[in-house]
Amino acid sequence: MLRWTIIFIIIAIVAAAFGWGGIASGAESIAKILFFIFIVLFLISLISRLFR
Fold first, then answer.
1. What is the pLDDT of residue 6?
2. CA gap 47, 50 in Å, rounded
3. What is the pTM of this model?
């Protein structure tokens, strides 16, 4: 999942550099959502490992 976040961040940066506003904002919002999902899953994994 972190791989997809990085891919969408790169797409957003490239699209912003070329001035494609709609594509950049769409990729940025997808990257944000995936990043927060990744953080939540990481924290759940970390907490479950601590209780083992």
1. 83
2. 5
3. 0.70
